[in-house]
Structure formats: structure tokens, C-alpha cells
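Appendix B. Chain record.
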Amino acid sequence: MSDAILTDNAASAAAEDAAHNRPRRSPFRWLVLLLVTLMLLLTLFPFMLAVINSIKSGVDYARNGPLSIPTSTDFGALAYFWNLSDFGRKLVNSVIISLSVSLLGVLISLLNAYAISIGRVKGSRIFLVILLLGIMVPQESIVYPLYYMAKATGLYDTQLAVIIVFAVLQSAFGTYLLSSVLRSFPKEIIEAAEMDGANRWQVLWQVVVPVLRPSLMVVGTFFFIWTWNEFLIPLVMLVSNNNQTVAVAMGLTRGQNMSDPTFQAAASLLGIAPTLIFFLIFQRTLTRGVVVGAVK
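C-alpha cells predicted for this chain:
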């Protein structure tokens, strides 16, 4: 009996010591948590506003305003925008274009970065500077040359033209990012592979790519989201309804004699939802790739 009492007393003393030695949260940490929570709410506010207004009726919106909770659920605006814009076809077009740009852009970026950082190409710094200048050029200044070249090559009003343009434009950023990662790539691994008889092509696909896969996933995710949100070049290059993207379809919500807030909210919700779902699916991959790049 006395042994059990001594054991209980010892456990209580150990618990008190652990509670006493536990680090107390400073007020600064609570302040940081509060600021992060506020930033999260501000980030989610436009999305929630689009959700609640897209399922409102026009009468409910006019009576209670944009910030009120819907008194009843009305999917009329969502259905009207879906049918008016042929949103199903636009969704498929955006997926095809964004996915193709993501894959092709990553491939071009990988080959460029490999040649610049590991291939010891002469004038690699000059090439990298030229690519960085390409990032800084606004799209408005290259729309007409792209339009002229597409007309001359017979690619105007085709998804292939938009895929080629965005893959080349976005590979400039991808080349810069991947080349900075490859500069810190262990030279010993490459030298060991070359001593085993591997050529440059084998070194790239069997040595570099497996190690670089998380960074490639990050670049591909960025390319997909950026291409999905592009508006100007698809608007100019894709004139037929069968080839247009989701971003272009969202332009139907505004006109000289048309302004329907619930219709615009429905278009915004349908335009945002696919990229949000894509980001949630690849969130872990994106986080893991950023962490791996930081460790390297």
C-alpha cells in the first residue's frame, strides 16, 4: 500500500515539474496568431462573398445587399452562366491548355537550366539575362507580334498557338528557378555517374531529374495556375467559341448594358473553383518541393 502511495506521489511530482518547466507562450506569439488569422479571413472573404452571392436571387440581393446571408438557395445564376458561356467546353479547353503548358514549360525549363548550370554552355550568363528580360516584358507589347506570327503560320485561333506562347514565356521563369537549384547540385554525383559511363542525356534523366522532381512539381503547379488565369492573349488568339478558355468566358459577365451582381458572382465562383481544387490536391507536393528547395 505504501509503495502505491509513493508511486502516485512521484507521478504527481513529475507532472507538476513538467507543467512548471513547460515554456509559456509569450504575448508576441498570440499576436502573430491573431494576425495570421485575420490575414486568412481577409484572403477567404472574396471567395465566401462569391459563394453567398452566386446562390442568391436577384430580389434577395437587391433587398438585403451583398453581405447578407441568402434567405433561400437559388442556383439560377450558376445555371444561366454555365449554359450561356458553354462552360463545360471552356473548362475542358482550359484544362487542356494549362496542363499542356505546364508539361511543355517544365520540359523547356529543365533543358535550359541543365544546359546553363551543368552543361557548361558558353555564354550561359548572357542567355540567363536574356531570359530574365523576357520575364519583364509586358504582354501588351507582344500581343500584336504574336497575332501576326500566328496568322502567318496558320495557327491563329488554335489552342496550339496559345500553348506554344505560354510555354515559351513561362519557361523563362522556370529556367531561372531551376538553374539556381542546379547550381547547388552535388558535383560528386554527376562525376560518379560519368565515371560509370553515363552520357549527358543519361545524367539528366537518371540522376538529375529524380533529385529535382519536387522542384519540377512546384514549377509545373505554378505554370498551370498562371496559364489558367491568363486573359489577354487567349482573348486575342482564340476568337471562336469552341476554343476559348474559362478566363475569356468570364468576360461575358460585363457589358455596356448588362450588370448583374449575382451573375458575376456565379462566374467568379465557377472560374475560381477549379484552380482552388487543383491547389488543394497538389498542396502537399507544393509544400514539399518548396521545403526541399530551401534545404538544398
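Further analysis of this model is presented in Appendix C.
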